[in-house]
Amino acid sequence: MNLVSPARSAHQDEAETLRLYESFVYREARLMDNHQYDEWFKLWTEDALYWLPCNEEDLDIHKSVSLIYENLEKIEERILRLKGKFAHAQSPKSRLMRIVSNIEIESVSDSEIIGTSCFVLGDVRLDRQNVWFGRNHHTLIRTEDGLKMRKKKVFILNNDSPMANLTFLV
Predict the structure, then answer these.
(1) Cα separation, 96 vs 66, whole angstroms
(2) Where does the secretion signal sit in this chain (predicted)?
(3) Structural domain boundaries, residue 44
(4) Into how many domains does the chain fold?
């Protein structure tokens, strides 16, 4: 009788990677929706890039206008503003609720997971409601502390139309 478990199959590894990625994406959405800024900030690596392109999804990041283009220092400044007393555009804070779906892995290496997901984000503030549709592209790095975001690109479906200010985490 063989008590040694068989080697993991590629399918098991893919399923585990997808589960880890899904868990990360759902946690990030919950932290943003609940305004848990410090916890959300801890999800980033030192070489972070938070990018929301404007007009088209596949643009040259260095030659195009962006809705948001931030490194870790700028992300930290955003968090400080949102937590501060003078974030008038978020006083009172938006009530946020995201539905995340269509989670897929694009590529995997020993150190990195790249994937996408879609979202619908409801934003209610001062009796005004907005609904945002978008797609996230995450580049996640495996660390001793778990997965961390190196890059997050958010494509807002109507990014080429007039829109309300994005004064919350997307």
Answers:
(1) 23
(2) none
(3) 11-156
(4) 1
Listing from the earlier edge strand, what are the strands of the sheet with 66-70? 66-70, 44-53, 146-156, 128-143, 112-125, 95-108
How buried is residue 116: exposed, middle or buried, by Cβ count under 10 Å (0-12/13-18/19+)?
Answer: middle
Would you state the pLDDT for residue 88?
A: 74
With respect to residue 40, please indicate whether it lies within any of the assigned structural domains.
yes
> pTM (2 decimals)?
0.88
Beta carbons within 8 Å of 118's beta carbon, 6+ residues apart: 100, 101, 102, 133, 134, 135, 136
Average model confidence (pLDDT) across the chain: 90
Predicted confidence at residue 7, as pLDDT, reads: 57
Q: What is the pLDDT of residue 1?
A: 47
pLDDT at 83 over 60: yes
